[in-house]
Design goal:
Largest sheet: none
Keywords: Cell outer membrane, Lipoprotein, Membrane, Palmitate, Signal
Structural class: mainly alpha
Order of helices and strands: HHHHHHHHHHHH
Shape: elongated
Family: Belongs to the BamD family.
Protein name: Outer membrane protein assembly factor BamD
Radius of gyration: 25 Å
Subunit structure: Part of the Bam complex.
Helix content: over 70%
Subcellular location: Cell outer membrane
Length: 241
């Protein structure tokens, strides 16, 4: 008996996946398939909705439902926590439909999708502090919401985007503070000062900026820099009053 190679196994798995999809999604007219997808969406049956919408997207990429199918996929991927697929679909839609009338919603969903990638269900469940985790998804989300506000200031999604930007700003500031604290524990005093200065410059109205002042003071004291240390003590007193 011949041994199956890795490429053979991959080919078999792909064929199995295709055949199972064909069994799940019947070969019916696009209007009926779209109606089935809408029923699943309304019922919150995300997996079934995804199967129907993906079938429409692959079988009729330039059909009458093409744009709406992609918009529905953006939403259902987000609801089903398929965030990477959602982001890829958003980027494709923005590239293919730059002037679409619902572009404000697409940008809003891009922000939500990126924001959702900066979390962990287990961490949320256990109330674990995640401030030291790389906040790159939050940076992207902040940028998405800012683009939304710049391009569509009167959008119905603008107010919510603005509120989310406040939360994201605090998330990014907390990461900078956690990084400064990391350098304190390693007695990298120049790095502490640089990080605290960046935090105070970029996020001056956050609690993290206030908390960074004692870290910066300690760094100045360790380096025997009396003048900036005194200025930092004055800033601490001002923030305590």
């Amino acid at each position: 008996m011949k041994r199956l190679t890795l490429s053979s196994l991959l080919a078999l798995s792909l064929l199995a996946g295709c055949s199972s999809t064909d069994e799940i999604v019947p070969d019916i007219p696009p209007s009926e398939l779209y109606q089935e997808a809408q029923v699943s969406l309304n019922e919150g049956s995300w997996n079934t909705a995804i199967e129907r919408l993906e079938a429409l997207d692959s079988r009729y990429p330039f059909g009458a439902y093409s744009e709406q199918v992609q918009l529905d996929l953006i939403y259902v991927y987000y609801k089903n926590d398929d965030l990477a697929l959602g982001e890829a679909t958003i980027d494709r839609f923005m590239r293919m439909n730059p002037g679409h009338p619902e572009m404000d919603w697409v940008l809003y969903m891009r922000g939500l999708t990126n924001m959702a990638q900066d979390r962990s269900f287990l961490h949320d469940l256990l109330n674990v502090d995640r401030s030291d985790r790389d906040p790159e998804p939050s940076r992207r989300a902040f940028s998405d919401f800012r683009r939304l506000l710049d391009r569509y200031p009167n959008s119905e999604y603008a107010a919510d985007a603005q509120k989310r930007m406040v939360a994201l700003k605090n998330r990014l500031a907390d990461y900078e503070l956690a990084t400064a604290d990391f350098y304190v524990r390693r007695e990298a005093w120049i790095a502490v000062i640089n990080r605290c200065q960046e935090l105070q410059r970029d996020f001056p109205d956050t609690l993290a900026a206030k908390k960074s002042l004692p870290l910066m003071l300690k760094a100045y004291e360790e380096l025997k820099l009396d003048v900036p240390a005194e200025r930092t003590r004055e800033l601490i007193q001002l923030n305590e009053s």
